[in-house]
Amino acid sequence: MIRVGVVTISDTRDLDTDTSGQLVVRALRRSRDIDVTGRVVVRDEVQQIKGAIDTYLQEKADCIITNGGTGISKRDVTFESIREKIHQELPGFGEIFRMLSFETIGSKAIASRAIAGFTQSDCLLFALPGSTNACDLAMEKLILPELEHLIGEKKKKKPTSKSDPVCSEMIEIQNNTNKKSLENTILRNGFQAIFSFFGFSAESSF
Question: Where does the MoaB/Mog domain lie (predicted)?
Fold first, then answer.
């Protein structure tokens, strides 16, 4: 089960008028593999944004989706707030989102600072614009098709040789072979030394 928290960033909306946040939640709940752990609305303030994200991180969310504040006005500080949390950025998300947006709104798409990436604790962050159309575009074309795959890739663990019975058996065989070879070398050298002492020459069959 993928645990997802939703954060709406706006100076004017609340839980009742937050149409974009509601859209994101509805889209997520179409999947049986996603658990929406909560939806909150915070103001366009860096500390409030970081506080909401930190709360979800403490609750062990696998993914956090924000909407709002990704433009270029003085009050738009989501990008700066989110970027500080990102340890591994997914630049392809912003690039493809702006490309898709260009097909709808034209050159205005360059003002979007949508961003995505993983935190240090491997929580996946998405920062979407606040418009309902933009959220719908991001959810349907990018996030929902790839969310399970991205989270799954991060949760994969590389097998270790100690936990791999086949690998362990091969290592043991190699160790035994090396040990036998060393024993034969010692015996061969020992017999050759004895024969040499008595003036004989001989070939060892070891």
Answer: 5-150
